[in-house]
Specification:
Two copies of one chain form a homodimer.
Chain A: H1 5-12, H2 16-24, E1 32-33, E2 39-40, H3 43-57, H4 62-73, H5 81-117, H6 123-129
Antiparallel strand pairs in A: 1-2
Chain A binds a DNA duplex (30 and 30 nucleotides) through residues 4-6, 15-18, 20-21, 25, 34-39, 56, 61-63.
Amino acid sequence: MVYSIGQLSKETHCKVPTIRYYEDIGLLEKAQRSAGNQRRYTSQQCQRLHFIRHSRALGFSLDEIKQLIHLQDCKHHDAHQAHDVAQHHLVEVRNKIEQLKQLEQQLLTMIDNCDVDGSDDCLVLKSLNEVS
Amino acid sequence: MVYSIGQLSKETHCKVPTIRYYEDIGLLEKAQRSAGNQRRYTSQQCQRLHFIRHSRALGFSLDEIKQLIHLQDCKHHDAHQAHDVAQHHLVEVRNKIEQLKQLEQQLLTMIDNCDVDGSDDCLVLKSLNEVS
DNA sequence: TATACAAGCTCTAGTAACTAGAGGTTCAAG
DNA sequence: CTTGAACCTCTAGTTACTAGAGCTTGTATA
């Protein structure tokens, strides 16, 4: 099976310019070209792009994905290095959730105070003006 | 009270280049200058920068902050437009939390499966290769 | 008052992860 | 053989800053 960039795009739900971008930054290896200089992809490359998109969807950075790809390609590594990358990412996700929950609380307090007040002035601006 | 950019920076915990950047994009009005062309700030401008930093800490985008500032400066607006901006932002924060929680679950499943397996192969890479 | 040096100035470019557009070429169907 | 969708490269824009080069100003101390 050989794919044009458009076919690969449909197959992986990854936009055409994004595929070219991944090639530019060396995340996807350079594609073979047709006689007329158009990119042609193999099933392996399609599989790799699936891997990348799936990882992105899980919030891994392109840098982390580069590491993961390296772990796939290179046999000389501890079995669970990929595990560690994922663990580390999980910690970051959890931190982010905590931060956002605090934010949610602060916003809620701000908005609720204003609702309760009942005056014609909006207290949201006022509370944003207070130094925290 | 008149501040140099460095004093303002300390007062607001906002880095010097960031202050200049805010001026460039029109978020802070252009500062007065000393005879030697250095920026001089008033207490009002200091207050405004506090407002901006507080809003940023709550996750408002610079664009949203521009709106909020406009609401402060312009008398002709409904009392609760700022309220609406905050409400909208709250909804976004909550959506983001939901997304991250789902992510957390998926990562956890991936990592746990690998732990349980007990084999020498890391299943993290395997599961990232599966099309979702 | 001379001097040293911290702090200020402008301008350019880099970060992450793409996206959009211009202007031109190739492929495939009819 | 023609048409038009899909492809090509290259540049620049997005968000919110940050870093660095190369130069100037302000201020504390001798």
